[in-house]
Amino acid sequence: MDAATRISDLPGAIGRTVTVHGWLTHLRSSGKIAFLQVRDGTGFVQAVLPANAVDEATFAAARAFDQESALVLVGEVVADARAKGGVELRLSGVERIAPGGAYPITPKEHGVEFLAERRHLHLRHRGPWAIMRVRDTVIRGVHDFFAERGFLRFDAPFFMPTAVEGTTNLFEIDLFGEDSAYLSQSGQLYAEAGALAYGAVYTFGPTFRAEKSKTRRHLLEFWMIEPEVAWLEHEGNMALMEELVAYLARRVLDERRDELAALDRDPRVLEATAEGGFPRLSYDRALELVAERGERLEWGDDFGAPHETILGDLHDRPVLIDGWPTETKAFYMEPLDGDPTRVKAADLIAPEGYGELIGGSQRIHDLELLERRIAEHGLPREAFEWYVDLRRHGSVPHSGFGMGLERLLAWFTGAKHLREVIPFPRMLTRLTP
Ligand code: 4AD
Ligand code: MG
Question: Please, what are the domains in the chain?
Answer without folding.
Answer: 7-98 (2.40.50.140), 119-421 (3.30.930.10)
